[in-house]
Write a structure and sequence with these properties.
- With about 325 residues, this protein is of the alpha+beta class.
- It has eleven helices and 15 strands.
- Strand 9 and strand 10 form a beta hairpin.
- The protein is globular, with a radius of gyration of 22 Å.
- The termini are far apart.
Length: about 325
């Protein structure tokens, strides 16, 4: 019956694109697991408020460490630990709610650790005394510590080191976690910085050369918009395919070469004007009051550099107010 088939086809397509079964529906939406927290948090909280619930439990998106993890201050539990071992090399895990106690269980019934994201910065690991150095295929100087942690060493002048540290500190003040954990270090008699280099990052250049697709899992904006706004704030004109990195597995953005930032020009770099400023980023910029910036960065930046940073912040906020 052609007429019946037509009606069934329409019904099928309507269902496939419905709020329940569509890409952004609860059965397929991956943003709670993979979207940047600063972009996703408002979206998640609206869901929690709408349904008057405390948390969500998410499957179907394997975690990177094959353990149950939490995000958004334990408002989201990610429980797909890749237990199909021949594909994901993971282990079976269960999440148990028992009289107010939440814990992860292994196959033997023993409790296992629940990882809270984002993880604390591994600064102490990058300050360890026992290490050995090597070069990777791209010529990066890698520092392997006795603990097994890996860092990347970059030789810098004192002024460059301060700017790199300022970028790291400002990134953490905003809660972006795009700048790798950065510490000032002397390695083999040379001064510079060591950055956390776990998960074997790869560059945007490598991604494009290998034509690998990086999907945007966020419902509204993109973390590239967060990055562009941060670059505008720090006055960066040197973002390139070679200093834009991704963590293997998670596709988390990492940015390096931040020693070329914090100029004394208050102008917003033209290269960063092409992207939209996400509302979440505007909220973060509003939290950066002048006294807070001066207290956190005065030891690293000159007065002119700090004043220009504050002017760039004000310019970004004025753009939003004029729209």
């Amino acid at each position: 019956d052609a007429e019946l088939q037509s009606k069934l086809s329409e019904a099928f397509l309507t269902a496939a694109n419905s709020p329940l079964f569509g890409t952004n529906g609860p059965l397929w939406y991956r943003g709670t697991a993979l979207c940047h927290e600063k972009l996703e948090e408002t979206h998640l909280q609206s869901v929690l408020d709408t349904w008057n619930i405390k948390r969500v439990v998410v499957g179907h998106t394997p975690t990177n460490n094959h353990e149950i993890t939490t995000r958004f201050g334990k408002r989201a539990y990610l429980i797909d630990t890749g237990m199909l071992a021949q594909v994901y090399q993971g282990l079976p895990r269960a999440l148990e709610f028992n009289q107010g106690i939440i814990q992860a269980l292994g196959p033997d019934g023993q409790t296992t650790e629940i990882t809270n994201l984002p993880k604390p910065d591994p600064i102490h690991k990058l300050e360890a005394l026992d290490y050995k150095t090597s070069k990777d295929d791209a010529g990066n100087t890698l520092v392997e510590f006795a603990s097994g942690d890996i860092g990347r060493f970059v030789k810098l002048s004192k002024r460059q080191t301060n700017k790199a540290l300022a970028a790291y500190r400002l990134d953490r003040m905003l809660g972006l976690f795009m700048v790798p954990t950065t510490v000032k270090r002397e390695i083999n008699g040379q001064q510079g910085i060591v950055q956390d280099w776990s998960n074997q990052p790869f560059t945007e250049r490598k991604r494009t050369e290998e034509t690998r697709n990086r999907p945007n899992y966020c419902a509204a904006a993109s973390d590239y918009d967060l990055l562009a706004t941060f670059d505008a704030l720090i006055g960066n004109t040197d973002r390139s395919p070679d200093n834009l990195w991704y963590k293997s597995g998670s596709w988390q953005i990492l940015i390096t070469d931040n020693q070329k930032t914090f100029t004394t020009s208050a102008r917003i770099p033209e290269t960063t004007r092409q992207r939209t400023i996400p509302p979440a980023m505007l909220d973060l910029l509003r939290t950066l009051d002048t006294k807070q910036l001066e207290s956190a960065l005065a030891e690293l930046l000159s007065k002119r550099e700090l004043a220009s940073l504050i002017k760039r912040r004000d310019t970004l906020l004025s753009w939003a107010q004029s729209e």
